[in-house]
Every structure is written in structure tokens, then in C-alpha cells.
Amino acid sequence: MKIYNPQGRVGHPPATQAEALPSLAGKRIGILDNRKPNAGLLMGRIAERLAADHGAIVSIVESKNAAISAPDEVLGKLTKEVELVLTGSAD
Fold first, then answer.
1. pLDDT score at 49
2. 3-state DSSP call for residue 3?
3. Does the residue 9 lie in any domain?
4. Is 34 domain-assigned?
5. How many CA atoms lie within 13 Å of 26's alpha carbon, on the beta-carbon side?
6. What pLDDT score does 23 carry?
7. Whole domain around residue 54: which residue ranges?
8. Which of the 8 DSSP states describes residue 6?
9. For residue 90, what pLDDT is reported?
10. Whole-number Å distance between alpha carbons of 12 and 88
11. Number of domains in the chain
């Protein structure tokens, strides 16, 4: 007879949160649009406002399907090209 321990580890370890940027001055802002209605518009306006208020630039806009994770190539591009990414939902 096999006995299984129900307290085993499930899933991946929790991810750690990135450190806050001390300033946005000179930083590049990216947008990851999930293609939900008005999401791109909302994030675009927020990014433009952040850029204007803090001396940053909006440098890249990528998109993904809202139902699945962004492809590795998109995440890699954002990781290499920007210091801040805005993403989210607009439902």
C-alpha cells in the first residue's frame, strides 16, 4: 500500500516584487496591452502623463492575448528595452 503525504509542495515558489524605481527621470516606459476594450488607451494616457510629469519617455507598446501569458519574446523585449511596464485590465 502506498501512502501519499497531502502536504506536498504544489506550484511554483512565489515571485518577489521588483524594487521601486527611485525616480522615473530618463527612464523608458513600456506598455503591455492585453487588448481588452480601452486597455491600450488607458495605459497609453497613464504612460504619457507619467512621462510628462517625471521626465520619462514612452518607448514601446506590445500586445498580448488577455486570456494567456505574454510570449517569452515579448517579455524579453520589454525586459531589455524599458525600466517600467504598465499592464492591466480595462473591464
1. 98
2. coil
3. no
4. yes
5. 1
6. 96
7. 28-87
8. T
9. 62
10. 22
11. 1
What cell does 32 get? 503591455
Give long-range contacts, CB 8 A cutoff, 24+ apart: 61-66.
61/30, 61/31, 61/33, 62/30, 62/31, 62/32, 62/33, 63/32, 63/33, 63/34, 63/35, 64/32, 64/33, 64/34, 64/35, 65/34, 65/35, 66/34, 66/35, 66/36, 66/39
Q: Does 49 reside within a domain?
A: yes
Amino acid type, 22: P
Q: Block means of pLDDT (10 residues each) for the chain, length 91 residues? A: 77 82 96 92 95 97 92 95 88 65
Q: Confirm if 90 and 36 have CB atoms less than 8 A apart.
A: yes
Measured between alpha carbons, how far is 14 from 60 in angstroms, rounded to an integer? 28
In a domain, 51, yes or no: yes
Decide: 67 and 59 in contact? Cβ < 8 Å: no
What are residue 33's DSSP bridge partners?
Answer: 63
